[in-house]
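Consider the following assembly input.
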Amino acid sequence: MTKVNITIDGQKIAARPGSTVLEAAQEVGIDIPTLCYHPALPPEGACRVCLVEIERQRTLQPACTFPATEGMVVHTCSEKVVEARKFVLELLLSDHPLDCMTCEMNGNCELQDLAYEYGIKETRFPGEQHTYLVDDPNPFIERDYNKCILCRRCVRACSYMNGVEAIGVMHRGFQAKIGTAFDGYLEDSPCEFCGMCVAVCPTGALTPKQRKGKGREWEFKKVTTLCSYCGVGCQIDLNIKDGRIIQATSHWDGPANHGWTCVKGRFGWDYVHHPDRLTKPLIKKDGAFVEATWDEALDLVASKFREVKEKDGADAFGALSSAKCTNEENYVMQKFARAVMGTNNVDHCARL
Amino acid sequence: MTGLVTAFGSGAMTNSLDDIANDAQVYFIIGSNTTENHPVLGMRIRQAVKQRGAKLIVCDPRSIPITEFATLHIRQKPGTDIALLNGIMHVLIAEGLYDKKFVEERTEGLEELKAKVMEYPPERASEICSITPEEIIEAAHLLAKNRPGALLYAMGITQHTTGHQNVLSCANLQMLLGNMGVPGGGVNPLRGQVNVQGACDMGALVNVYPGYQKVAGPAMREKFEKAWGVPLSDKVGITLVEMLNKAEKGEIKAMYIMGENPMVSDPDVNHVEKCLKSLDFLVLQDIFLTETAALADVVLPGPSFAEKDGTFTNTERRIQFVRQAIDPPGEARQDWWISGEIARRMGYDGLAYNSPREIMDEINCLTPIYGGITWDRIGTQGLQWPCSNAEHQGTPILHVGRFSRGLGHFSAVDWLPPTEEPDEQYPFIFTTGRVLYHFHTGSMSRRSEGLDAIYPEAMVELNPEDASRLGIADGQMVKVSSRRGEVTARAEVSGKVEPGVVFMAWHFAEAAANKLTIAALDPTAKIPEYKVCAVKVEAAA
Ligand code: SF4
Ligand code: SF4
Ligand code: SF4
Ligand code: FES
């Protein structure tokens, strides 16, 4: 395939055919700010933060949708461009609550980052602000549309990832708002609570209820692991603070799921911290469990298993391994049955 | 998975999630509620339909979320899958629509298959399935016209006394269409729990060591005896359901159960309880005091997925890392450490490992299909078995150019009615399954605040016709009973099920659907018949 030769900020680039200006720039590490663009979604060109100056074009053009063509010369930080960007950001902030001190997304908000980068403290356009009620009783997703910048990433996620199209843009102009068909609760819509809309929202408009008040973004340690439920094998990032899981976020490189999750992977891990968790070995005495030390419990198990093996034979023993456990744990369990007990009576619930 | 071994020589999902999502022109989904049970794959299939116009055939007695996107939804009567598949193959053969070149070069047994499916013209097949002949013909034409096509199935195919035959029938169809060994094709059993594939691969099965190496016969036994330093039994073991039966008879004395909850997951749980109570000694290793753990003599606290390092093998045979994010609570210990300690106290040191990595090293040495899947190579993308050595890049698609057994084998398969059919006393067909918001026995999902809040209780799905005849209103409590037990739960009156059929999800211990199900076993695969039994329904007092 022949490359497309373009120049961005004086740098000559051989771009892949079919790339947008944004993609061409990203490939060589030139940073163009974006808000409605998300690498896992089709571009929409809604926010106009990515405007760039393209020679021989009358007006500034959005880099995220504008195709790179042979011989094109692009400027991404000319005075005109910077002014336009500031204008777009100021407009957005003129209708934004600016309560970063208590916002869950403080430290991980793309709007905040751009306001910081462009030094926007006040807006030149004071005007009417929305005051939406933050009211959706579903157990998973907090929806605060006062912080919404109408980038429509959530709408695209719901359409191009999940597919149920539970949410869309309602009304136009200042009245425009993201909502379900009758602007009701998510539970009354086709929403499946996959949380992909939360994963892609650049601001604090959509956040997991689970993390509310549990920590600031920079306190979390991210550990990439797998969802514990079904066999798809989705990779997720567990966000940890003080030995507790605060939230699960998308890991966009996972080979089976490419960042997508369902409700169980994104929101269903909290059983890990349930008070019912077993924390001590238990031995049943006179019909009731009493706590025991590991030595007591393990010695008892070892002596009973030995007794059965010697008295009734190896085949009087059966082991049940687990489809919830790791390969290593399963290997150990079957080896235990075969090498220690001497029987092939080892099974698991694969058939179930 | 015995059916796939017979047909192809290997029992796992043949293709990968990526090629299925990106390359299939038609999906044939039978016995899989994909968007609820394998949601992210369900999402990807929805996108294939929406964005690139792939065709979707769903064969399911119930109306399930994915049927909304289907090009064709066939609502065959529960337990009639073979008749349906034979009917479709009848059309393909009679109209000469099958892939003659593929069949000639890569398969054997066509004549036998032909003779059998000729007994299932669409008129007869459709009668057995309670559908129209046109639906069968349309399915055949969609499959013949759109290639490649991926066939997906789950428990809806395997959980029947004829499960083994059902799987053979799926294999027959895909070979006939030439959809094997190509991206976007394949016979794809979707594995339910996170590491079912791995548990099988690791030899948590009665007849094979890790990597499907047979326990019967001297070759493999000697290899493992040498590696593990002890004499081993060459007698094939007994499966869970058989263990339970023998426990009842006093022939199994002790059981060691790790992370499973047969008191909710197994058929006929009243019987399971009786069996487990007959044991002299029961050890449970788990993260919660499950319904099964409550019956144990000793309970050992293990780690949750977030508290351990190791690997899971997903449904597409991909080995990926699980990473420890937090410490286990209290004195809970690693499962491999616990089993190793019991072994040590019984005088065996061969399970004294220091880390999961050490265990994987041993797996690599003894398991050819995992030979090259070493700790250092798994990385962020994982590797798909078979992967025999450190240079091998893994195998995204099985049976490319050649089946594991050489030629693909067609088997003539006959439809047989389910073990228990409705009668006057128990007039409804009862089937079970899962819902999006819960998982398996509910031991995890029922303890997730959000999941339990959004779907708090078991529902009994009833058709409006039946409901009005029985005087049952939507939301009313009903009693469902079979010859084995009864449960009470709330009725959901909707067109999701056809008249004469009742559906329940089985995640709910307090209304355990498996009190009703039947423990009749598929004689080859030993899978219980969860999907079909007979029940009656009445308003709860
Ligand atoms: S949670 Fe998923 S289904 Fe629900 S609105 Fe968001 S993207 Fe759509
Ligand atoms: S809710 Fe978030 S993702 Fe959706 S339009 Fe508003 S800011 Fe964008
Ligand atoms: S996130 Fe959902 S689809 Fe993915 S592995 Fe978990 S349960 Fe399965
Ligand atoms: S990022 Fe280009 S218009 Fe929003």
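The radius of gyration of chain A is 27 Å. Ask yourself how this observation constrains the way the partners meet.
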